[in-house]
Amino acid sequence: MYSRLKQSVLTLLFLVLAGAAVAENGDEATEQAIQSPHAMVETITGELLKSIAAHRDSFEQDPEPFFSELDCLLGKAVDFRWLAYNVMGPYRAQATDEQLQRFASAFRRDLVETYGRGLVSYGDETIVVLPPAGDLTGQRKVTVQQEIHGVDGVFPLYYSMALNQKGEWKITNVVINGINLGKTFRNQFAQRAQKYGGNIDQVIDSWTSKVETEA
Q1: What confidence tens digit (pLDDT) does each residue in 189-202 have?
Q2: The pTM is what?
């Protein structure tokens, strides 16, 4: 059940991250996103579900079109350089700019290919977005809560979201049942760095998050 739960969390993370990119397609969508991140999360999740449905039948024979589409959506919603910087933790202090860029690319590629496969099989869970607890007007950081209703029960998710300088909502972390995904990836990087004696290049070359989600 734990493996299934973690896969569900990362699948839903992708749904929201990719959906956030849709808000950039017009002024009206951007305004709605700023006014209500909760409504944005609920509405735009459906956009990616359409993409999943369109690629599901052809995915096994040719997964690249879906990966490419997913990568494009994520590229608009996520600052992978910033995310990689945080996942590297204390090792970022000794990383070169080139290493940071390479890890951002490796981290992005791994997420797209690993969890993109999970997205294609999405359909067993129902997502419920809970309304905000209070007035969010003027706030630049909010928490959006969802519930996963699946065969294993109901699980709460908490998305940390923040407005960047362009007025775009970005997801900065996800927590479910006490599982902090940001810390999970950061611990994974630290463990690999220790395994390779602090050799960041080896960590980057061998990076994958697949083991942790299937354990």
Answers
A1: 999 999 999 999 99
A2: 0.69
